[in-house]
Amino acid sequence: MIDSDYFVVLAVVGTMAENLKECRVPCKATTDELESLCRVEGVTCKDLGIRKHNLTEYEVEYLCSYKRVVPTEKLKNGMTPPPQEMFLVKWRGFPESMNTWEPRKNLKCVGLLSRFWDDLALEMRRQKRRAVPRRLDPATASHMVQRAKLHVTLGHWERKLTALNMQRGGGGRIFVRNDVDLEGPPRHFTYINDYKVGEGISLTEVALGCECTNCLEEPANGCCAGASQHRFAYNELGQVRLRPGMPIYECNKRCRCGPECSNRVVQRGIRYSLCIFRTDNGRGWGVRTMERIRKNSFVMEYVGEIITTEEAERRGQIYDKEGTTYLFDLDYVDDEYTVDAAHYGNISHFVNHSCDPNLQVYNVFIDNLDERLPRIAFFATRAIKAGEELTFDYKMQIDPMDAESTKMDSNFNVTGLPGSPKKRMRVECKCGVESCRKYLF
User: Fold this and answer.
1) Residue where a domain stops, chosen among 12, 39, 57
2) What would the mean pLDDT of 20-27 be, rounded to a whole number?
3) Are 97 and 65 members of one domain?
4) What are phi and psi of 265, to 5 degrees?
5) What percent of the chain has pLDDT over 70?
6) Residue 300 included in any domain
7) Contact 294/380 with Cβ under 8 angstroms?
8) Does residue 154 fall inside a structural domain?
């Protein structure tokens, strides 16, 4: 049997190896190469999904090129038949050397055909051509193959991100779209769901939990928020009802209440389906929602490595030279720690700035009550329509007249997000709203 991750070698070598059932070694072949080998050799493989009933089935992986061919034979009435559309097909599980030209009538892959025409239309506009040629030239065909391979790569990444989000308990899918260029997933970025704690930093878990049976309607001693002398943060729909700047105290792992408790919102993860997309105005990647989001609803956390401010200063100098960095200060009470999402982070890594944002930051405490290490959560400032880009203000300000939020008032700021290192530089803003400040810093 051939496995996608390992070659399994069964060995019987007498009494010296009577306890050796199987030996595994890393496989240097990709899944596609293994699938191709199985089909060529006529071998079934349960792990690759190749069985007797589908061994000879052929699935289109992507379309490489296009041409219109005029049939040489005339119809019975003597008329010349219309041109026939032909597509160069890359078959899933087979090498590119086995690509074949197929007529449109043989292809049942409606989604792939639609994507091919969309990509070709974009390329025709880029070339300033009004009509699709009868046959694609080599350069255009090569570009179409690159676009097709990009879709495959982004599709793999999309499924991986969605699976990771599901592991956290979030119910939303994560989509990935790039209709602008050939940029693929970030090479040196690892998607994580929770903070990665840096060297020399420890998180102290909470020792006590609430005794409530219904935290929203019958909170015992004010529930977790009351125990910290703060207000209960959410209403019955899970919408935040505190003013920005005020901390949120959620129930923790030591509380008696269950996972569906009204005071467990941020810890449930991302609930909305979101899309990472490539912007067309030089802002790199962005994030938009695929569904409507209610005002004051939790959207996502800002996740990354927790590092000291000293380490942030050191990294900031490196990021400054590279022209990009993702440092977010945790200065709810003291400016001691920073979250760095440059190489480890979640979907918030891709959220862009706006001078008129639809996301607001709140400090949240769950299993760790150290006020120097709050969790950073984004809530919707207003109702957000499906398809709208999600943004927050990199230079967020809290109402200076709000005495209850003075801890977060003057210290809260984002440092070093794209193009803005620790040492302030004059960075042009590209958010495009009417109230744009023209510069991020």
Assistant:
1) 57
2) 53
3) yes
4) -120, -60
5) 82
6) yes
7) yes
8) no
For 236, the token pair is 């019955």
Question: How many domains does the structure of the chain reveal?
Answer: 3
Q: Which two tokens stand for residue 278?
A: 């490539």
pLDDT of residue 128: 94
Bridge partners of 174? 274
Distance of CA 218 to the CA centre of its chain: 38
Higher pLDDT, 320 or 345: 345
Range of the domain at 68: 60-136
Contact (Cβ atoms closer than 8 angstroms) between residue 194 and residue 169 = no
* Residue 88 near residue 64 (C-beta atoms within 8 A): yes
Q: Do 278 and 321 meet the contact criterion of CB atoms below 8 Å apart? A: no
Give me the sheet containing 100-103, strands edge to edge: 60-69, 84-91, 100-103
Indicate whether 117 and 50 sit together in one domain. no
DSSP for 362-399, please give it.
Answer: EEEESSB--TTS-EEEEEESS-B-TTPBPEE-TT----
pTM listed for this prediction:
0.81
Only one residue has tokens 């997933």, namely: 185
Please name the helix (run of DSSP H) or strand (run of DSSP E) that holds residue 302, with its range, or none: strand 298-302
* CA 345 to chain centroid: 10
Sign of the alpha-carbon dihedral angle for 165, 344, 286, 62? negative
CATH number, position 273 = 2.170.270.10
The reply to whether 431 falls in a domain is: no
CB 144, CB 124: distance < 8 Å: no
Q: What is the pLDDT of residues 157-178, one digit of tens each?
A: 999 999 998 887 777 899 999 9
Token couple for 221: 């001693």
